[in-house]
Amino acid sequence: MTSFGGVGAITRAPIGITRSVPETRRLLEQCLGEVFAVARARKIAMSATAIAETMKFYDGLPPGGTTSLQRDIVDGKPSELEYWNGAVMRLGQEAQVPTPTHTHIYHCLLPQELQARGKIAFPE
């Protein structure tokens, strides 16, 4: 759900839209590819069809589906950003595997996460 959550949070779109727009569908696939590469580099067994299987799973979700990360970001609440996209980014760095898509998502959502956690304040 890390890829779906991060992409959903930056697009503010439910999975039915995200998976149907070619550009955001590609973004989901890129995120999944990074997770796959990080897992492989860390010696975690992954099926060669993991990305396709996950996309098939996403295609079967109700069109209005969102994740808790997405809902929390939209609602201005603390989210799982550090444990989802942030974790992929950090584990990728440790394994020397580039994770540009997850890193971009993390950086884009970090100000909102910091505000939700009371670490920064946006001007009113």
Describe the protein.
The chain has 124 residues and is mostly helical. It contains seven helices and no strands. Helix 1 packs parallel to helix 5 and helix 6 packs across helix 7. The protein starts with a helix and ends in an 8-residue tail after the last helix. The mean pLDDT is 97.
Number of domains: 1
Strand content: under 5%
For the record, the CATH class is Mainly Alpha
Number of helices: 7
| Gyration radius from CA atoms, angstroms | 15 Å
Which homologous superfamily in CATH is the superfamily? N-(1-d-carboxylethyl)-l-norvaline Dehydrogenase, domain 2
SS-based class: mainly alpha
Helix content: 55-70%
Largest sheet: none
Shape descriptor reads globular
Distance between the termini: 33 Å
Give the SSE string: HHHHHHH
Beta strand count: 0
Regions with little confidence, pLDDT below 50 for 5+ residues? none
Looking at the overall shape, the CATH architecture is Orthogonal Bundle
User: Overall mean pLDDT score?
Assistant: 97
CATH topology: N-(1-d-carboxylethyl)-l-norvaline Dehydrogenase, domain 2
